[in-house]
Automatic annotation (TrEMBL):
InterPro entries for the chain: RNase_H-like_dom_plant, RNase_H-like_EbsB-rel, RNaseH-like_sf, RNaseH_domain, RNaseH_sf, RVT-Znf
Gene3D superfamilies: Ribonuclease H-like superfamily/Ribonuclease H
Pfam families: RVT_3, zf-RVT
PANTHER family assigned to the protein according to its UniProt record, in alphabetical order: BNAC02G40300D PROTEIN, REVERSE TRANSCRIPTASE-LIKE PROTEIN
Residue ranges of domain Reverse transcriptase zinc-binding in the record: 3-48
SUPFAM superfamilies to which the protein is assigned, alphabetical: Ribonuclease H-like
Listed CDD domains: RNase_H_like
Organism this protein belongs to: Macleaya cordata (Five-seeded plume-poppy)
GO molecular function list: nucleic acid binding; RNA-DNA hybrid ribonuclease activity
Start and end residues of each RNase H type-1 domain: 158-281
Protein name: Reverse transcriptase zinc-binding domain
Amino acid sequence: MCLKDGIPTRSILSQRINIESNLCPRCNTEPETITHALLTCEESKKVWFLSSLNVRTEPFNQKPIKDWIEYWLLPHNQDPDSEERIRCFPYVACLMWSIWNARNTLLFDNIPQPVQTIHNNALFWANQKEITLEPATNPQNSLPQIWTKPNLGWIKANTDGAWNPNTGTGSMGYIFRDWKGAMISAASIFNDSLISAKETEIRAIWYAIKRARELKIKHLIIESDAKEVIDGLKQNLFVGDWSTDAYLKDIGDWRSSFDQLIFSFRNRNCNETAHVIAQWASQNYASMFWSTAPVWLGPYLDKDANS
């Protein structure tokens, strides 16, 4: 729509019908072209600069919107960041749409939207694919077979549990990574009194959400290969037996700490890094927390980053 002048900015409308002014209704200083409305109006510039992209749009002032689209989508052999920009474009498109919606809400309903609300709306739309990927309607062999980075502005936590039915011991593991695939935090936690594999999986998710609250993460994806547990959480079933009920109730209560919290099932291939982290505690009969990756974890992180 942008490239075909399909957005009814005042500058475009003034060429087709009689309107009082072609000036931007927000700043009242410049004609409201598509570029001005979405990128270079003072209100729009604040949104882009304060977003996770942290981009300045002034260089596109007086340029057609086509230049902006090409900046994000066309590969440049001499630019090492061009591949990353292409990957970010879904969020860029959603942020443009969110800015336009905020403009219309102000113009027609006289309701200003805070910058954070505009960001949150864009993040929600950009991650609809995470929300709509339901295991019930997508067989496991149609799910991604490799770990994937979260979208811009999101953090992904992979969790796993390991349980030994002969000894009743087990361990829980989690790892947080950002949209670049960089590790933020990880832990392997040993416990010598567990009654089921399901309990270890629920506890692993509990530990991850607890850590996310400590890190003040607001947009979080929890990935696990425990399908039954994830299905229950997605259906808001926060009731369990005597061994899991308290943990599930905490998870239900803690949802309000996040702007968005998504529970997602993935197969073991996508969750291998969390699996080996969980196994570490069982093998060493100890717990460990990391803010930087231990050397032995490097090959797994490299494999995920290059997948």
